[in-house]
User: Fold this.
Amino acid sequence: MTKVLIVEDEPIVAEAMSQFLENAGHEVVGIARDEVSAICETAAERPDLVLMDIRLAGAGDGIEAARKIRADYPVNVVFVTAHADPITRTRAAAVQPAGFVTKPYSARQLLEVVSTAGFRRK
Assistant:
């Protein structure tokens, strides 16, 4: 079982992702909507994996949140985003994510990346 933090600013998407992961046997330890909440939830819950949207509510973005999280905590980050243009992917790659899933994604894709990234815990 992988402990997962979901960082997604669309509540319906976050809830659907949470239910799917829990049904597959993973533990969702929280849902954050913005950069500050993502960092706070990571500190409090110590997940094995963070599923991180790139576009978040409020100031900051998922790439910056991932950079800060990875600097302070031994956690893998997987970007789950609709923004897969070359510039965004290059910025995201600099954070050394454990994976990158482009929306829309299939249930199979999401489970595969969670299983792989959870297995490769730091």
The two ends are 15 Å apart (CA to CA).
